[in-house]
Amino acid sequence: MNNKTPSEAAALHPAIAPLSYLLGTWRGQGEGGYPTIASFSYGEELNFSPISGKPVIAYTQKTWKLSSGEPMHAESGYWRPKSDGSIEVVISQSTGLVEVQKGSYNAPEKTIKLHSQVVGNASKVKEISRTFELVNGELCYLVQMATHLNSLTPHLKAVLKKL
């Protein structure tokens, strides 16, 4: 029998405490582009949820066309921060692409830098990097991508506010 109260059971695992500022829902707008595609703007929502008692943050993301609200892209996964400042992230995209990312976080500066170890089920994408930074209470990110035709090049950037 579990003798923990609901508040004790929901306590943050110490491993995710340094990234607790991420927890919750973020919404805003982004811009995308790449040498092989036309530039575009989008609305976006990210959600970071702790998993009770586990050293993991569940992650979901969805984007939509600003003009119509029509869904564009979605992805989900798990973030596993380690006490040494390293982090592992797995992401599955609605396109069928899968990423395994490793990187580091700086809790005092509220920055996270990720770089792909594996990009699976992708015929053209060879490499992905993601950088997140909390600036004046807004979550800003930059996604860079490399394909068989282009080296690591900016692809997506957004600024999101916590709801």
UniProtKB/TrEMBL annotation:
Entry's InterPro entries? Calycin (IPR012674), Nitrobindin (IPR045165), THAP4-like_heme-bd (IPR014878)
Q: Catalyses which reaction?
A: peroxynitrite = nitrate
Domain (THAP4-like heme-binding) spans 16-162
Q: How is this protein named in the record?
A: THAP4-like heme-binding domain-containing protein
Gene3D superfamilies (alphabetical): 2.40.128.20
